Amino acid sequence: MKTALTYTSEVKEALDTGKAVVALESTIISHGMPYPQNVETARELEKIIREAGAVPATIALMDGKIKIGLTDEELEMLGNSSDAAKASRRDIGYLLATKQTGATTVAATMICADLAGIRIFATGGIGGVHRGAETTMDISADLEELGQTNVAVVCAGAKSILDLGLTMEYLETKGVPVIGYQTDKLPAFYTRSSEFDVTYRSDDLSEIASSLHIKWSLGLDGGAVIANPIPEDEAMSKSFIDSVIAEALKEAEKNGIRGKDTTPFLLGKIKEMTEGKSLEANIALVKHNAAVGAALAVRYAEIQKNSAAE
Questions:
Q1: To pair with 268 at 20 to 30 A between CA atoms, which of 6, 38, 170, 257?
Q2: What is the homologous superfamily of the domain 125-310 according to CATH?
């Protein structure tokens, strides 16, 4: 039902002409940051992508449609919305049917990007296996989507509030390559590395673009994680952020916070306990991912054009 998709003229023209396009999620606007910082950041991300030679496509559900690209007015409306639903795979059908506003998570953005034929998506960090998941079964839908949807996600690894070891095991089971861009170790969102090795390291975006093209050309469905560490001068001390996360986890347990409420609660507590420094780091890493994502999308579009011409 691709009639559910609508495009801004900029995105439509880019897709029709084979120009590089980068998908962006919208929960970062509605649930990730306070207004007006959320809208300012969203506009800055789009500017970074355009300056790198690609076209940004911020994705959201509005008025019974999947919006592939948002106007300035729609960005503003989403940033000011107090009732936008957090939309994952399970929510898309219902939110479209009821014409509610839905801000897309990593999983939902991947689905919508795939429907639109967009293969590169830049975000902050992916969800993963939550700590204690061996008893709670709390595993992000992002991982399941990565196992089946043909979109590469440029991110600063997985949020360090998660169980990173189990997250890597889950991705391995699902056949999802985790390619470290200029890193051998999985980044841990606020910090540049963790104790866990990536699947492959690559210092060359053309090489990464080629690997994605070959993977999907062979019919090997599923996404890829392009793990891009936070810039060094914006990274937080591992010992400091680990102690903050440990304290935030204790508070979540004490308050009975579970399921989809866990991540927003923890991120809110971490922001409070770091006096806003975690939000600054979040913005810095998302901008960095947008720049790398745009450069990757340009190279991927070139490979696609050359392949079509052969």
A1: 170
A2: Indigoidine synthase domain (3.40.1790.10)
- Alpha-carbon distances of 308 from 16, 18, 110, rounded to whole Å: 14, 10, 24
Q: What is the CATH number of domain 1-118?
A: 3.40.1790.10
Q: What is the pLDDT of residues 219-244, one digit of tens each?
A: 999 999 999 999 999 999 988 998 99
pLDDT for 68 beyond 80 = yes
Q: Which residues are catalytic?
A: 25, 159
Burial (0-12, 13-18, 19+ Cβ within 10 Å), 239: exposed
The whole-model pTM stands at 0.94
pLDDT of amino acid 1: 62
Return the pLDDT at 260: 67
Structure-block tokens of residue 30: 């509605």
Q: Check if the beta carbon of residue 155 is closer than 8 Å to that of residue 289.
A: yes
CB under 8 Å to 119, separation ≥6 — which residues? 113, 150, 151, 152, 212, 216, 297, 300
Comma-separated ranges of CATH 3.40.1790.10 domains in the chain:
1-118, 125-310
As a whole number of angstroms, the distance between CA 24 and CA 214 comes to 24
